[in-house]
Write a structure and sequence with these properties.
single chain; Rossmann fold; six-stranded parallel sheet; five-stranded parallel sheet
């Protein structure tokens, strides 16, 4: 009789874990079952994960509600393949003694580089001008000179801190905001903490690096967008629901904002009639900020390390 724990990867689409040599490290610890397509319903999630002791949730688009978690009697641990754990009902997980783990910090330089790339893409109007040239156009649109401009970083965890470093290296003036500012932390970053509204008013680029919680939901809404400088750029590589997307689309269409670089959306993938997708001055990527070969393997290594640590009785990176 096989007494090994069953480790389920319930919806690895787009591919994240499949084909990774990191998974071989788990073979002596448990039986691995990987599904290469996303479950289409809660019932399908339950059917796939019914016997699971451990879930590796490689895609945050696969959500685990309280209703689903309650239907998984053997589940003891969930590890996400990234930082955010908003795909998991943490309240129910805690009530059922299901440990939830994440992977903080490993891909911070990769995600911050992507955010920086989005900033440059928006500032240099690359999406708009590429489409124009391909259509036979030769339009004149002014670009934005980034050096000397003010970068406002909201959230100074691992990724936000790296964004501060990149901004300073580029010759930008950097200001920051966090829920728990301190003089010591400001000195470490090399950037002053300012009040939230002040950051919005003075920044030429605002970059979001908060985790999604009830407190941070729609932290950027109509009021906050109205406080931003005319022509400012918004970057979001955190979570889609940090921003009121309807309000952002209105701010872009009105010309108040100069552009936006978006990697994350309230619903993923966004529908083709999503209000942001019709905004010419926006640049979009499909929630792929850490999707480089290096980033993919760092995350796969992280989830495998989390699982092994849990099975050895020394859990790490525990969120709940």
């Amino acid at each position: 009789m096989n007494n090994k724990p069953i480790i389920i990867i319930p919806g690895d689409d787009p591919p994240q874990c499949q084909g990774s040599p990191q998974l071989k490290k788990l073979e002596t610890f448990g039986e691995i079952v990987l599904y290469s397509n996303r479950p289409e319903s809660n019932q399908e999630k339950i059917e796939r994960a019914r016997d699971a002791s451990i879930l590796i949730n490689s895609r945050s688009a696969v959500k685990w509600s309280g209703e689903v978690l309650k239907a998984l009697p053997n589940l003891r641990m969930v590890t996400v393949c990234g930082i955010g754990v908003d795909a998991i009902d943490l309240t129910t997980a805690k009530a059922k003694n299901i440990l939830v783990c994440n992977i903080p910090g490993k891909t911070a330089p990769i995600v911050a580089e992507h955010a920086f790339g989005l900033m440059f893409s928006v500032a240099k109007r690359t999406a708009y001008q590429t489409a124009s040239v391909r259509a036979g156009g030769w339009s004149r649109v002014d670009n934005v000179f980034i050096q000397g401009k003010t970068l406002g970083v909201i959230g100074t965890g691992n990724i936000g801190s790296e964004m501060v470093r990149l901004g300073r290296a580029m010759g930008m003036r950097v200001v920051a905001w966090t829920y728990h500012p301190s003089g010591e932390r400001s000195a470490q970053l090399g950037a002053p903490f300012v009040e939230f509204d002040e950051l919005l008013r003075v920044s030429d680029v605002v970059s979001l690096h908060l985790k999604l919680t009830d407190l941070s939901h729609h932290v950027i809404g109509q009021k906050e967008l109205s406080l931003m400088k005319s022509g400012a750029i918004l970057i979001n590589v955190g979570r889609g629901a940090l921003v009121d997307e309807e309000a952002l689309a209105s701010a872009l269409r009105s010309g108040h904002l100069g552009g936006a670089g978006i990697d994350v959306y309230g619903i993923e993938p966004p529908q083709i009639d999503h209000p942001l997708l019709s905004c010419d001055q926006a640049v979009f990527t499909p929630h792929c900020a850490d999707m480089t070969p290096e980033g993919v393997e760092l995350l796969n290594e992280g989830v495998v390390e989390n699982v092994i640590a849990f099975l050895k009785g020394t859990p790490q990176n525990v969120v709940s």
